[in-house]
Write a structure and sequence with these properties.
Elements lengths: L7 E4 L6 E6 L4 H12 L5 E5 L5 E6 L13 H24 L5
Length: about 100
């Protein structure tokens, strides 16, 4: 794959019990395939690692899901923002109290 391309290819071929996935280097698809191969080595196989960093892998059909983005109400967004701000404030306070704590 060319370095300036931003594509992922999923091959759905009838009669096979898997899909073929080609994913470019640095993509979330590639990272996810690598994670799944470690977690499920019997199901997920990375068959090729190309010079440009892209991969070709076989995964079961059931591993591929396409979901629409979630839609949040304004109230839900507001609550999430409040939780995030609270967490950041707590983290900041902890860092000030223990600056060299790992």
């Amino acid at each position: 794959m060319s370095e300036n391309t931003n594509e992922c290819v999923i091959e759905w071929i009838p009669g096979r019990d898997y899909v073929g996935v080609t994913a470019k280097n640095g993509s979330s698809w590639k990272n996810r395939c690598e994670e799944l191969e470690k977690e499920f080595p019997d199901d997920v196989k990375i068959l090729a690692r190309n010079n440009d960093g892209s991969i070709f892998a076989h995964l079961p059909y059931s591993y591929i899901k396409i979901n629409p983005p979630r839609k949040y109400s304004d109230e839900t967004k507001k609550k999430a923002a409040e939780r995030l701000n609270k967490m950041r404030a707590e983290k900041s306070n902890t860092a000030e109290e223990n600056p060299f704590c790992l």
